[in-house]
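Q: A small favour: would you put together sequence and structure tokens for a protein?
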Amino acid sequence: MSVRIADLPLKCERRNIREVTLKLCECGKEGSELALVFLHGMPGQISNWKYQLSHFCNKYRCVVYDQRGYGESDKPLRVSLRDYLLDLDEVLKVFGLTPQDVVLIGHSFGAMVAQTYAREREVKGLVLIGSVLRWHVSMLDRVIAVLPPIFWRKILFTKNPLTVRAYRDMFFSPKTRKEVFEDFMRDNEEYISSLPAHVHRYWKFFSDYDARPWLNDVKARTLIIVGADDKVTPPSWSKEIHKLMPNSELVVIADAGHLILYERPEIVNKEIEKFIKSLEG
């Protein structure tokens, strides 16, 4: 059954965080000693987590926010990885949390932020879903970087036969039902087409990212999840992350691609909940 983000018991506000305004939301058990903090991917938004929030808001305190540049948060011309780490510090303070209080749950770029954060801060636990091992600059990225938006915005970031086919092939397993893809498009079609051109070029600020030299510094207990059919952050990356991280476990989910949050939410939620209970025990 499809979930609407508007129907979830989220309490949201807009806060000035380090000179940009971010949309922050929470739900669940206020005052709980353990909080789940969700970090979306690029170009993601809060609604990407709707199937996780619908499950966990009834069980734990949950914090989710639109990271700078995305969703309903401000979209500065320049960003850096350090911005996202310092933003997370400030968001935790807004909710009266410390890194030791939280399980960071990140998807794709959000998982990249989470694992980098956990390198420098001691967190309760870490869940990496389709995480980034190193930044891969595609030919499409290079085209977007050099050509004016008039040449690529309408073709690549509005709903048309080309994008429907390309998004379906790139981000989803070939075994994913059409209804799941349509659910994702309903949530994100208008949003993706409305993003300023400079946001689609943020990748250039991360093009030198490579976690391989330091992942073994991350000591937090970590759950790594990846779809077996993920083409964006392939299972080989998650397997290497697992190999490099001394305190991790790996779950590869069949018949799922990069947007596993939509494709296999029940399995993802079950694995996350099992991991959280092991931290509490």
Summary: The CA atoms of residues 20 and 256 lie 35 Å apart. The radius of gyration is 18 Å. The chain has one domain: 5-280.
